Amino acid sequence: MNKVVISVLGPDRPGIIAAVSKMLVEKDGNIENVSQTILQSEFSGIFIVALPPQISIDELANYLKEGLAPLNHHVFVKPLEPGRVFFTMEKSEAFVITTRGPDRKGLVAAITEIIARYGVNVTNLQAVFKGGDDPNNNIMIYEVDVPAEIDQQGFYSDLRRKAEELSLQISIQHRNIFEAIHRI
Amino acid sequence: MLTEREILSTLEMVQNEHLDVRTVTMGINLLDCASHDLKRFKDNIMFKISDLAGNLVRACNRIGDKYGIPVVNKRISVSPIAVAAAPFSSSQMIDVARTLNQAATAVNVDFIGGFTALVEKGIAKGDRALIDAIPEALAETERVCASINVASTRAGINMDAVYLMGQKIKRAASLTAREDGIACAKLCVFANIPQDIPFMAGAYLGIGEADAVINVGVSGPGVVKKAIDRALSTEPQIDLGQLSELIKHTAYKVTRVGELIGREVADSLNIRFGVVDLSLAPTPNVGDSVGEIFQSLGLFSIGVPGTTAALALINDAVKKGGAFASSHVGGLSGAFIPVSEDLNISESVANGYLTLEKLEAITSVCSVGLDMVALPGDITEETLAAIIADEMAIGVINRKTTATRLIPVPGKKPGDTAHFGGLLGQSVILPVKNPPGANRFIRLGGRIPAPIQSLVN
User: Fold this and answer.
1) What global pTM score does this model have?
2) Does this complex have an ipTM over 0.85?
3) Residues of B in contact with A99 (CB under 8 A)
């Protein structure tokens, strides 16, 4: 079996997952993981699929493109390379960084620049930008894995300094607090 | 993956509703410090406290930062000094109090509790020496807190001890007359004192406890109030059963925070985790008040008719939610009604809605007792003792903890204001019926027998 990654992007509407999965069944593919998200009107889905050896990536890609054209969706297919490791993080702790403040260009770029500089990995990012100056309308939530070996105090103080520069309220909390409070 | 709502509601609780861990209190057993030699005893105490609690404040701050939840107070409770220092005289006991104060200063905790005697059935030599030392010990130190258990459901009420405490409170107030009798703010008189209270001034480490233990006191009146306000604004038809459920959920969340942080502090210091005390503990800040919850529930003010029923509802719901959230719940676990420490409650007193008699009544359904109650300076020892006796009777008969923290404010009369400063706040002095009069009932002394446990009406 070969594993492939399929990404689908286009306007949201009922039937997208049904169409993709039906075509995968027709090519004897087996979905191992799937995740989808919707931002405003746009749907994006990512699938990891095991394919029988006789089906090539190009063949599958063309088949999907053709099938999804009526839905006005873009498809991208690439082989999954499970052997290749692009980064490792042996020991890390999960934190949640939340910023609130007036909307302006470059907020995400400024914060993620620091996150990247310290080798911290963003595992989930949610942003609510409704514009304007009400801080509660402009919230970014970064879930991150902070490696144990980095200078954590330096990381936090750099983040706090940058947030102040951008007039953002920032809070940095270990993920466990949210689970403790909200989950049984 | 966390949901946006989970994250934002947590932030809301911390940033706008005063969610915090009110205290992490390390209990330290001092019985193995015992010696007949005072210097040696004091050296042993200093060494043991510095050794065990040296890193307490740092650990609490680090872990509080990690979770973004402040640990507001770090404190120590110790074995009852009347037992640990039993061979010593009253003046030597004052010296022991100074050493405790020194030890607390050395490890940077704001209070150390355990200047304590358990005398519900009788007063031993060490107990008497400690009780006699209380006024000077509290007047001369800043951080030492004292508590005396004078009654229990199994022993009855030791009225000799009650009268004695009336005298000591009066004396402690006169020694700190210039500060409105502040020494009395560090002295609790108890019925059925628990062994694991993390909150001051009643904290001490019980004889049945381990060598060292971490107990946590959570807070959160602001969180409860805001949850009620939100529910009533989105759903005005909500009934009291549903509100009770809502308070339960909120208490669950608050308690989980205490449990998480307490356990991690305990782990990092390699000390066993004891209990979470589920108390709604207010501060003089707006939005961090127990009194405001009554208004959210629809009462004009705490103290008006309906107060006792509302408090019964709140207290029961807090206990139910908290008990589910934590594997070990203990201490006082009830809503506190510390008059001077809660801006809203102290205003209700000033406006005449909350009286001494109503305060006493509500302690029968919850709360710890007559807490931080400022009384006229001309009140007699006997009247003070009689107020204590009444409060003890409520605890003894109802099989619950009750306590008093009464402050006869020297030179002030009903309607004047006493200022205690900081978290202790301020309060109008409450009128008392017959304050300067004699009370022959109290002078009779002896012990009020333990109550019958059947025929429960």
Assistant:
1) 0.90
2) no
3) none
